Fold this sequence. Notes:
Layout: E1 5-9, H1 20-29, E2 34-37, H2 46-56, E3 59-70, E4 73-80, H3 87-115, H4 119-129, H5 135-145, H6 151-159, H7 174-183, E5 187-190, H8 200-213, E6 217-222, H9 227-240, E7 243-247
Parallel strand pairs: 1-2, 2-3, 5-6, 6-7
Antiparallel strand pairs: 3-4, 4-5
Helix pairs in contact: 1-2, 3-4, 4-5, 5-6
Amino acid sequence: MNVVADLHLHSDCSDGRLAPAALVAHAARCGVTLLALTDHDSVTGCAAAADACAAAGLRFVPGCELSASWRGQAIHVIGLAVDTASAPLAAYFADIAQRRRLRLHEIGERLERRARLPGRDLAARVLAQVTVPTRTHVARELVALGVAADVQGAIDAYLLRGRPGHVPVEWPTVTEAVAVLRAAGAWPVLAHPHRYRLSAGALRALLAEFTAAGGVALEVSVGGMARADLDRLATLARRHGLAASCGSDFHDPSIPWNPPGRFAKLPADLDPLSARL
């Protein structure tokens, strides 16, 4: 049987649109046979996703996507086959949740002052609805207000650096994130490295630090990426002796370009992390 492994999926337990069971059903319709739920800084949906996978005959991998920082930039580290009952992981989540709540309040204040928008009410609505508040949630509220046509437009206009609602945040270091994942028995994976605004030399330095900390894999193939990026990341995986992971980074069924299971095949000479799961 051909295995279609999607190791990067989000549910509404973070910033995805579908509940875990609905996400599993959608992934199954898309032909996925092995999936990992990798919500941001949460494993809340893993039990429901595991039950849904068992009912649908899919293999399930519990996971999460941790927020971290490196040289002032936000970096994401995925953990696969994570112990969802890990105490160090729970403490990490609690710390991140507090930082997220404080950031959301400040985003609301800045939107109120700088953009003349009802930012405080907006932030209150987000915080009342979700336990892992993200900029995507704020962007959806901005779309609902009618000040942006879509989520990406709202992020670009209001939430990026230099925009009225931008609030910088310092997450734990990449080294700390990897250590927490290793303590939780997980395989640490550097997520979507082609998206970081890093020079080629800085990305190599990040990978060297990630590997030295105990990172084991690089996300080489991601939904919607250009072939040139895949080739570049494959070269980096080889150079740093990292296994290769792949995933759609799916969030929303209304977005057509990255459904579950759709991403380029890994080069044949790479070591697929899916084979270890």
